[in-house]
């Protein structure tokens, strides 16, 4: 029976916005690691280097003024995307950088930090580096559920036991692909006087996140997860940055200095030391603008349609591949392959230009939770640009790979 997919035209239109996919037969299914870069974000980088290559906020000439204006326009685009004020947005090198800034800010804070078992290394290691540990109760870990998320009951119990804590967690797991009930978790945390930090890097390219409608204190994400270039990220702090200090200071951060002391700027400039990644900031601005033009609604509908394709073609019925979590639409699907090294499968898929991710996915505790063999998982992560051709190549490639390795697939 021929299946007709209603969003095929929309997926094609979106795919045509990505030069790396529009003109090749590449089957890219590793968006959770890095999305492909939208054409307008690529052009923003080229435009900067070709037409107004200068430092920002430093030059009394037109080229620098143009670069500075676009740089600050990006702050506006990001603020609009997450419904924040421009003064609450600072540019970083990415999610990891932002979380390190936050952990450093709280290094001497006596309150415990609550995280989840699903966290990426970027929301574990900065807390360990600044002295917090699970064994002494300064780092409290909410266990992951069998479904690949976190139960509200477990989260509530731990927050009740640790009121007035710092709560830091992701909105969607890069390992299991499951979306956490993060809005409800934020409400519960705030009801118990906790300060809330959200890592939304797996969500921001797929679904809207509003800081005005949710009582979020801190928020981080990266350009390369939302169709922009690499090396750029966003740090949001409610109310601005006047009380935030980091160990990274220099040009652009100062309001005064001599050889005895210095005074920092009172706003986001105290976070953005030195010459920033101007091209990268221009790129994330273009990506944010593209998302607003395409709309999250269309992105989600296209990704839901890709799930329908995966379901119809039998991805979730393949023997030897156990999906973590329920069979339902999302942007990340991770499979445990008992007795099989996922890297061997990925290597065979690569011969047909099918790109998937394997291993611990920079989330070792989560990996140990779901795969006792220690071989990690095989992850399929999609974007709004993935189409039926991608689906067929993936499923047929998996069948072929398993058969070559001597496994029966039915």
Question: How do the helices and strands line up, and which of them pair or pack?
Answer:
Blueprint lengths: L7 H8 L3 H4 L4 E2 L10 H13 L10 H21 L6 E4 L2 H11 L7 E4 L8 H5 L9 E4 L9 H10 L4 E5 L11 H10 L3 E5 L18 E5 L10 E5 L16 E4 L4 E3 L13 H17 L1 H17 L9 E2 L8 E5 L5 H9 L3 E2 L1 E3 L4 H7 L6 E5 L6 H17 L6
Parallel strand pairs: 1-13, 3-4, 3-5, 5-6, 6-7
Antiparallel strand pairs: 2-8, 7-8, 9-10, 11-12, 12-15, 14-15
Tell me what you see in this structure.
- With 410 residues, the chain is α/β, with parallel strands linked by helices.
- It has two domains: 8-30 and 295-404, Alpha-Beta Complex (Aspartate Aminotransferase, domain 1); 42-293, Aspartate Aminotransferase, domain 2 (3-Layer(aba) Sandwich).
- The protein is 36% helix and 14% strand.
- The protein has 13 helices and 15 strands.
- The protein has helices at residues 8-15, 19-22, 39-51, 62-82, 95-105, 125-129, 152-161, 182-191, 278-294, 296-312, 342-350, 364-370, 388-404, and strands spanning 27-28, 89-92, 113-116, 139-142, 166-170, 195-199, 218-222, 233-237, 254-257, 262-264, 322-323, 332-336, 354-355, 357-359, 377-381.
- The strands form four sheets. Strands 2-8-7-6-5-3-4 form a seven-stranded mixed beta sheet, sandwiched between helices.
- It is globular, with a radius of gyration of 22 Å.
- 47% of the residues are buried.
- The model has no long low-confidence stretch (mean pLDDT 95).
């Amino acid at each position: 029976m021929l299946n007709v997919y209603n969003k095929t035209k929309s997926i094609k239109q979106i795919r045509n916005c990505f030069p790396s996919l529009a003109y090749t037969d590449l089957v890219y299914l590793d968006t959770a690691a890095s999305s492909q870069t939208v054409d307008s974000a690529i052009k923003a980088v080229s435009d900067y280097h070709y037409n107004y290559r200068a430092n920002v906020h430093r030059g009394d000439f037109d080229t620098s003024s143009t670069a500075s204006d676009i740089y600050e326009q990006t702050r506006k685009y990001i603020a609009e995307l997450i419904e924040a004020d421009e003064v609450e947005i600072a540019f970083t090198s990415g999610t990891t950088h932002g979380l390190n800034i936050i952990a450093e800010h709280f290094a001497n804070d006596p309150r415990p930090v609550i995280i989840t078992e699903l966290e990426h290394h970027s929301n574990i290691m900065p807390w360990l580096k600044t002295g917090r540990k699970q064994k002494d109760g300064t780092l409290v870990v909410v266990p992951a559920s069998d479904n690949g998320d976190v139960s509200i009951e477990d989260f509530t119990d731990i927050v009740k036991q640790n009121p007035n804590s710092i709560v830091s967690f992701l909105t969607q797991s890069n390992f299991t692909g499951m979306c956490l009930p993060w809005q409800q978790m934020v409400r519960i945390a705030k009801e118990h006087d906790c300060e809330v930090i959200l890592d939304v890097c797996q969500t921001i390219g797929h679904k809207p996140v509003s800081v005005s409608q949710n009582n979020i204190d801190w928020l981080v994400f990266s350009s390369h997860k939302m169709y922009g270039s690499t090396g750029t990220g966003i740090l949001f702090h409610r109310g601005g940055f006047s009380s935030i200090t980091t160990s990274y200071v220099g040009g652009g951060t100062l309001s005064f200095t001599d050889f005895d002391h210095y005074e920092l700027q009172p706003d986001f400039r105290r976070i953005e030391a030195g010459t920033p990644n101007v091209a990268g900031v221009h790129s994330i601005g273009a990506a944010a603008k593209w998302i607003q033009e395409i709309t999250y609604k269309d992105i989600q509908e296209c990704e839901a349609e890709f799930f329908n394709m995966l379901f119809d073609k039998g991805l979730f019925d393949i023997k030897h591949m156990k999906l973590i979590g329920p069979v339902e639409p999302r942007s990340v699907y991770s499979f445990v392959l008992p007795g099989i090294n996922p890297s061997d499968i990925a290597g065979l898929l690569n011969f047909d230009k099918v790109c998937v991710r394997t291993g611990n996915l920079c989330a070792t505790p989560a990996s140990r939770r779901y795969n006792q063999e220690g071989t990690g998982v095989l992850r399929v992560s999609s974007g709004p640009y993935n189409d039926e051709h991608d689906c067929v190549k993936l499923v047929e490639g998996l069948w072929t790979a398993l058969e070559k390795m001597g496994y029966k697939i039915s």
